[in-house]
């Protein structure tokens, strides 16, 4: 079974968020299960492409409106990532360093999709299925089924995975001429709220759409930035499949980024050693419970509540709890957190930015990971933390709800709270501080977390079953 995954991100080539982790792992595990899965993504002028060798497997020219574009398809020679990797390179458009935030971003991703379709169409390839990820590839199903140029591909099933339904990639009708030879009677399949909406179009046109957790599938019909009615109408087309994690990369026994590796049997000693090194680096005491936050400092993640929640928790618990923040985002939140660091240097430290090796060390060395998200389609951080014996403290939403059971319930292992509020966060901090004092219970819960299976083996099989249910329809 030949599958193409289309994505704007893929770890380790280019990562901005969890999308990269998923696309960098799912195809590898699908290949291990017997598929032939490949990733197609834009070319980025980054470290990975300079350190690896690529073959040019296709060259062509296409039109973006009246603009003629020359493009190349580059293939990584060794398949070292566990799958075939193809990069779409367009001089002057898809050959830059950053993934997002260019003024012509819409043109970048429209061109990326057109070049992919031109490549497989002109080279005579007929994949069994095309799997699109987020709005950056959301126009592909429409073009495959409703563009005269790609009639040869119209029978191929498409699946569209929504990693975050808050971002649609919408643009105005003045850019309609960018799309090649479409059936103008079908333009309603592009429309939402008076504009062209790639995410909405993908949901309308794909054979099936998936979300990255079952709970998020339900939540989209009540919170999807204006597409609620669409998800309600198309609900029978949706399937919720929880993401997995790459257990080869996220393995405390072999992780090269950890100063002290450990297994379930040695979790107490191993975590303490990593905690001591982490706390020494950030001038915090290793004798107190350490609550960490890793992620973007944006409203979606509830990070705007962190300064007030941390301030109140320190007042309530005195010198009995420490906080460590790793992330970047909204300036006001960054400023407030840095101020807390100055006011409470013995209890708070902040690293503005992102550092992959530091993230691994925090997962290994922290006692608790706080995730007060307003929206969390799946969440991978809580799965990483549990793999490393760090208890997640999560708001009950999306994938957090699906993967974390409160330790107060039978078989539980985490801390869950209902509201995105300073009050609920502070109550959870109090529960964490009390639990930390019970070292025997902490050890039991850590071992329970580490024994959970969040690997991609399970999730990859669910996707394969979905593929197989569609392909016989050809």
Automatic annotation (TrEMBL):
Name the reaction it catalyses: [(1->4)-alpha-D-glucosyl](n) + ADP-alpha-D-glucose = [(1->4)-alpha-D-glucosyl](n+1) + ADP + H(+)
What's a GO biological-process term for it?
A: glycogen biosynthetic process
Q: Where on this chain does ADP-alpha-D-glucose bind?
A: 15
User: What sections of the protein cross the membrane?
Assistant: none
Q: Which domain of life is it from?
A: Bacteria
Enzyme Commission numbers on file: 2.4.1.21
Ranges for domain Starch synthase catalytic come to: 2-228
Pathway(s) the chain acts in = Glycan biosynthesis; glycogen biosynthesis
What the entry lists under InterPro entries is as follows: Glyco_trans_1, GS/SS, Starch_synth_cat_dom
Write down the Gene3D superfamilies for this protein, in alphabetical order.
Glycogen Phosphorylase B
Q: Which PANTHER family match?
A: ALPHA AMYLASE DOMAIN-CONTAINING PROTEIN (PTHR45825:SF11), GRANULE-BOUND STARCH SYNTHASE 1, CHLOROPLASTIC/AMYLOPLASTIC (PTHR45825)
Q: What's the family?
A: Belongs to the glycosyltransferase 1 family. Bacterial/plant glycogen synthase subfamily.
Q: What is this protein called?
A: Glycogen synthase
Q: Which gene encodes it?
A: glgA
């Amino acid at each position: 079974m030949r599958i193409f995954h289309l994505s704007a991100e893929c770890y380790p080539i280019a990562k901005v968020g969890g999308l990269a982790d998923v696309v960098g792992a799912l195809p590898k595990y699908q290949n291990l299960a017997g598929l032939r899965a490949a990733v197609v993504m834009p070319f980025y002028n980054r470290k990975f492409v300079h350190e690896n060798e690529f073959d040019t497997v296709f060259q062509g020219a296409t039109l973006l409106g009246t603009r003629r574009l020359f493009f190349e398809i580059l293939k990584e020679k060794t398949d070292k990532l566990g799958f075939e990797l193809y990069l779409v390179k367009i001089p002057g458009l898809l050959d830059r360093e950053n993934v997002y935030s260019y003024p012509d971003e819409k043109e970048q991703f429209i061109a990326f999709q057109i070049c992919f379709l031109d490549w497989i169409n002109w080279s005579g390839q007929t994949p069994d299925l095309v799997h699109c990820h987020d709005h950056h590839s959301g126009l592909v199903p429409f073009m495959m089924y409703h563009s005269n140029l790609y009639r040869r591909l119209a029978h191929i099933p498409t699946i569209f995975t929504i990693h975050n339904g808050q971002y649609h990639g919408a643009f105005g009708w003045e850019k309609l001429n960018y799309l090649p030879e479409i059936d103008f009677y079908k333009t309603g399949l592009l429309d939402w709220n008076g504009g062209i909406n790639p995410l909405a179009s993908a949901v309308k046109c794909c054979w099936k759409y998936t979300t990255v957790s079952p709970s998020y599938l339900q939540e989209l019909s009540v919170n999807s930035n204006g597409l609620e009615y669409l998800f309600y109408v198309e609900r029978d087309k949706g399937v919720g499949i929880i993401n997995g994690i790459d257990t080869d990369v996220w393995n405390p026994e072999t992780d090269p980024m950890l100063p002290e590796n450990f297994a379930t049997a040695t979790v107490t000693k191993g975590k303490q050693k990593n905690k001591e090194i982490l706390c020494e680096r950030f001038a915090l005491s290793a004798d107190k419970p350490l609550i960490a936050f890793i992620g973007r400092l944006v409203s979606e993640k509830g990070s705007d509540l962190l300064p007030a929640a941390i301030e109140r928790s320190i007042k309530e618990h005195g010198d009995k709890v420490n906080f460590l923040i790793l992330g970047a985002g909204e300036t006001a939140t960054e400023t407030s957190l840095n101020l807390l660091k100055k006011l409470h240097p013995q209890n708070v430290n902040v690293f503005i930015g992102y550092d992959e090796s530091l993230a691994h060390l925090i997962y290994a060395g922290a006692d608790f990971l706080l995730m007060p998200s307003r929206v969390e389609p799946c969440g991978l951080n809580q799965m990483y933390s549990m793999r490393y014996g760090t208890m997640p403290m999560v708001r009950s939403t999306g994938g957090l709800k699906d993967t974390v059971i409160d330790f107060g319930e039978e078989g539980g292992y985490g801390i869950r709270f209902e509201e995105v509020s300073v009050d609920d966060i502070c109550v959870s901090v109090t529960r964490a501080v009390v639990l930390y004092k019970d070292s025997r219970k902490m050890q039991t819960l850590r071992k329970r977390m580490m024994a959970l299976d969040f690997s991609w083996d399970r999730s990859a099989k669910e996707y394969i079953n979905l593929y197989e249910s569609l392909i016989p329809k050809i």
